[in-house]
Amino acid sequence: MINAIIILGSIGFGIYYLKGLKNTKFTTKTVVMIGMFSAISYILSMIEFIKYPQGGGISLFSMLPTMLLSVLFGNTVGITGGLIYGVLKLLKGVYIIHPAQFLLDYILPTMLLGLAGSFGKDKKSKVILGCLFAVVLSVSMNIISGCVFFGDYAPEGMNVFVYSFLYNVSSQGVEGLLSALIIGILPLERLNRAINASGN
């Protein structure tokens, strides 16, 4: 039952994304930016400060480029970058138990980072709020996956949800929070002007 709900939810998000694609104009500049930001995310993901035994850990702000892409270009572009980044991460190895687990661990978390631009970019508070919103959704996918598919790894006597929550928040959650804070202090207006000045 839970697997069916996960897949249906993924389909719903996919429909939202496809509608966004239909209404978004992808210029040459936008496509180049998506490719560049996705590649940077992948490279940063390979620089790991802490690696957890069951996978995951803290890398060098690999979430940051996808969220920044969303803030600068909008959610659809950000989600596209997140999708490409997620596919690139498969090159590092993949462990699949079920299609729903594959979506929760490898595709949805990076795509959901593309929702960082949900609250706009006219105020720093909105930018940070949007980034935190995206991080919460992204990490929630890993938490659900941990509860549903990897509960056996929880120490004896520990609640599965508590285990998955602590495991993922202390890794992806910490990295996401730090990435959001960094984006919050970046000169976004200057970056936006530089990008727009570069033409199409």
From TrEMBL:
It comes from the Bacteria. Gene3D superfamilies: 1.10.1760.20. Keywords: Membrane, Transmembrane, Transmembrane helix. One of its GO terms (cellular component) is plasma membrane. Pfam families: Thia_YuaJ. One of its GO terms (molecular function) is thiamine transmembrane transporter activity. The chain crosses the membrane at residues 30-50, 62-88, 94-115, 127-151, 171-188. The keyword Transmembrane applies. The keyword Transmembrane helix applies. This is Membrane protein. It comes from Paraclostridium benzoelyticum.
